[in-house]
Amino acid sequence: MEIKIAKNYGFCAGVKNALEIVNKTVLTSKDKKIYMLNKIVHNQNVIEQIKNLGVIILDDSSLTNEEKIKSISEGILIFSAHGHDKKLDLLAKKQNLEIVDTTCKKVLLNIKQIQNALLENKDVVYIGIRNHPETEASLAISDKIIFLDFFSPDYSKLNNLKNISIHNQTTLIQDDLIKIYTKIKQICQNVEVHNDICFATSLRQKSLLEVTDEDLIIIIGDKISSNSTRLYEVGKSLYPNRTVLQINSLEELTKFDLSKYKKGFITAGASTPDEVINPIIKYLQNY
Q1: Of 2, 67, 120, 134, which is the active-site residue?
Q2: Which pLDDT does position 282 carry in this prediction?
Q3: What separation in angstroms does the CA of 124 have from each of 84, 131, 164?
Q4: Which residues in the chain land under pLDDT 50?
Q5: For the whole model, what pTM was predicted?
Q6: Angle, CA 49 vertex, CA 56 and CA 61 arms, to 5°
Q7: In what order do the strands lie in the sheet containing 263-268?
Q8: Whole-number pLDDT of residue 78
Q9: CATH number of 2-10+200-285
Q10: d(CA 27, CA 29)
């Protein structure tokens, strides 16, 4: 099969930085237990690699983050790249835990902008995916923040707002987000838009425009990953008459009959490791 690979794919700088911090922590803290609150990035292959380093992942969905932290004492607690409620820092310290924060720099910048808007007494509106850790971290800044669900925004929440500052989760679909901005501007006055989509997410979504006559489009990324799943959705939207697959392993790909396809296009989400991407590329090149 003839294969074209996107110019921008795979790990972003934020994910690379987070994993470098984890590896450094493991190497320099061999005499301590190391815990991680939830998944550092949303890719199961990466999580398994981290578990193999001896890191204990606290990801029991039946427990709150507070309950997870209270279940341990002493050692090191790693916070994920998505950001977190800063009240959890105080709780971790009470549990005699050392804190390692891997929050993405772009997420930290967005949080700072939200804090500044609140200090300026603006009506802060946050657009995100419900229950996503980045959204939860941003909403934890203040109970004054108005949440709009990316998939089903309730615009009635914006009635009577006069000085709006709009912020958003970094891994949404750019074009769909712009539609929400436009709707808000139609019903509200004095609207300030920040457009917090991260550069890596934007580049990977734009990379799908590199598709020409390929009849098979493959998005490599975990279905629990927001950026990978949004990438898949963009692909389906742009190319409704072509086959678009989202897979997270070579094993998944081999379950599909690809014999009818002549040309393939490959890209990958920002949380997908090369260890997953490269075998898939090689397999398709030799198909």
Answers
A1: 134
A2: 96
A3: 18, 18, 6
A4: none
A5: 0.90
A6: 45
A7: 2-5, 263-268, 216-220, 243-247
A8: 97
A9: 3.40.1010.20
A10: 6
CB 183 within 8 A of CB 230: no
- 13-103 topology per CATH: Rossmann fold (3.40.50)
Side chain identity, residue 81? A
| 106-197 matches 13-103 in CATH topology | no
Report the pLDDT value the prediction gives residue 51, as an integer from 0 to 100: 96
Q: Are 272 and 16 in contact (CB under 8 A)?
A: no
21 and 44 Cβ atoms separated by less than 8 Å = no
Catalytic residue flag (residue 134) = yes
DSSP single-letter state for residue 136: H
229 class by beta-carbon count within 10 Å (0-12 exposed, 13-18 middle, 19+ buried): buried
What pLDDT is attached to residue 98?
Answer: 97
Name the maximum alpha-carbon separation found in the chain: 60
